[in-house]
Specification:
Elements (H helix, E strand, L loop, with lengths): L4 H37 L2 H21 L4 H16 L2
Helix pairs in contact: 1-2, 2-3
C-alpha cells in the first residue's frame, strides 16, 4: 500500500492515464477494423478510404505512446499491401 503522498498521487494519476490510453487504443483499433472489414468485403474504394483515415490515427497512437513506431509501420505496411492486392 502506498504510504507517501507522492505514491498516492501516482496511483491516482496512473488510473486516469490508463483510461485515456485505453480509449486511444480502442479508437485506433476501430479504424484498423474498418480497413480490414472493407478488405474482407473486397471493396477497394472503401478500403482505400478507410486506410487514408486510419494512417493519421495510427501515427497519433505512436506519438501518444500507445504503439511503438515499428509496430505502427508494420501494421500500416501490411494493410497497404492487402488493399493493393484487391
Amino acid at each position: 500500500m502506498a504510504n507517501t503522498p507522492q505514491a498516492k498521487k501516482r496511483i491516482r494519476r496512473n488510473a486516469k492515464r490508463e483510461l485515456v490510453n485505453k480509449n486511444r487504443l480502442s479508437r485506433v483499433r476501430t479504424y484498423i477494423k474498418k480497413v480490414e472489414t472493407a478488405i474482407e468485403a473486397g471493396d477497394k474504394d472503401a478500403a482505400s478510404a478507410a486506410l487514408r483515415e486510419m494512417q493519421p490515427e495510427l501515427a497519433r497512437g505512436v506519438s501518444k505512446g500507445i504503439y511503438h513506431q515499428n509496430t505502427a509501420s508494420r501494421k500500416m505496411s501490411r494493410l497497404n499491401k492487402r488493399v493493393a492486392a484487391i
